[in-house]
Amino acid sequence: MPNISYISLRKIQQAERNSSTLTRIDKNFYRDVSTFLSDLNNRLIEEKSPKKQILIREELQRIEKVINSIYEQREKKILIAAMTKSRGGDPNIKNILEEEKKLFEEVYNLLISTKRYIIGGKTELEKGEIEIEKEEAKVKEDIKIEENIEKGDEGLKEETLEEFVESKKTSKVNLEEKYSREANTNPVVRILEDVPSFVGLNKKTYHLKKGDIVSLPLDIYDALIN
Fold first, then answer.
1. How many CB atoms are located within 10 Å of the residue 41 CB?
2. Which sequence spans correspond to the domains of the chain?
């Protein structure tokens, strides 16, 4: 492991500050500083003298601050380089480390895919995600339809379907068809006015409220609209 100390790290920090591009550092820099910090922490744990513990802790804090500064300066340059490349430029990243390449590539790819998505032309992955969202929305709507059929108001008087239709004394109940009858065996409709509670031929009790979207058996559908 190369000789790492507060002084050597400060030199790297200063070099990064004075350069607009990534400076050349040892290819194992991040691994070496990680080992160095680990050793320093172990020294702190094993040290018995309170005074020496204070000195080691202060040294550790100073070194961590410098290492973070080095990383953040290099990180900023990598982000700028990724943006430059995404716009057709040719950034200088010859001194990029292996660990930093992943950051560069992921940011570059994100910039490209986001630009394509916003300006136009979605990727296959994005199209797939949109289809999944549509399917999830459909499932939620189906669940709501079932809940609307099952829910009820115990205080309402129940009528049979025939009694309800007879009581309306009109040719049609105010319903709005959501899907074509041919496309769905059980039409899905939106209720435009409250309907008194009634019992269908299937022995289910229906409590239909204004604004409900429900799937109705054909016999009930026909009875309500005719």
1. 13
2. 6-119, 141-225
Classify 9 as helix, strand or coil.
helix
Nearest to 160 by CA among 106, 211, 196: 196
Angle between helices 218-225 and 161-168 (to 10 degrees): 20
- Rounded to the nearest 10 degrees, the angle between the axes of helix 50-86 and helix 98-119 is 40
Dump the DSSP string for 39-77: HHHHHHHH---HHHHHHHHHHHHHHHHHHHHHHHHHHHH
Q: In this predicted model, what pLDDT tens digit does every residue of 78-94 receive, in sequence order? A: 999 999 999 999 999 99
Quote the CA–CA distance of 221 and 160 in Å, as a whole number.
Answer: 14
Distance CA 145, CA 141 (A): 6
Task: Find the angle CA(118)-CA(121)-CA(123) to the nearest 5 degrees.
Answer: 95
CB-CB contact of 194 with 129 (8 Å): no
Distance of CA 28 to the CA centre of its chain: 35
Question: What is the number of other CB atoms lying within 10 angstroms of the CB of residue 109?
Answer: 12
Domain 6-119 falls in which CATH fold? Methane Monooxygenase Hydroxylase; Chain G, domain 1 (1.20.58)
Question: Does residue 199 sit in helix, strand or coil?
Answer: strand
- pLDDT tens digits, 23-59: 999 999 999 999 999 999 999 999 889 999 999 999 9
What's the CA angle centered on 24, arms 20 and 26, to 5 degrees? 145
Distance CA 21, CA 94 (A): 9
